[in-house]
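ingest -> validate -> predict -> emit
validate: passed (alphabet ok, no gaps, 202 aa)
predict: started
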Amino acid sequence: MTPPLEPIELLASPAPERADAARNRAKLLAAAAELIQEHGAEHLTMEAVATAACVGKGTVFRRFGDRFGLFLAVLDQAECEMQQAFMFGPPPLGPGAPPVERLRAFGVASLRHLRQNMDIYVEADKSAAQRYDAPPRVVRERHLALLLGEAGVSGDLELLAATMLGSLDPAQVHHLLTVRRRALEELEAGWLDLVARITAPS
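emit:
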């Protein structure tokens, strides 16, 4: 039997920092967001962000580590808003609704969130070695495992949650929307069908 799961924390929330450091971070992220809007996420470089923010390239690398870290930082605000919605917001996405309803709402909200921020997620997701330990994914996987447990699903809930997240993978969703020409509504219906099958009484 899978051991009980502990409550999750907001892993993507940034740690408190000095006022000047916060201002510098905000300046760099604003420059990155503007470059993404103008040229697309695939063309974003650390050098371009440094130039736009009028700082040395080394400053950007020290602040974010690499391009993957920069994309995660750009996504942080939108991701934190999403996490607040499914952890503390109104039902059915947030607490207060039955777990199966919350599972249904989670997938629909995630698909819409992905479409809105798709190019950034696709670029950030290209680092396969790091994607599975990225804080947003860890939080979502833990959230799904908790809801599955509340819904009375048995088995290895962490593995099942990870498998479910595969249907919300940014690269796959992007492929289905752009190459396969599937409508977002079709993907939402597929998620609802998946939830129904997994949570159906055995």
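The chain has a mean pLDDT of 88.
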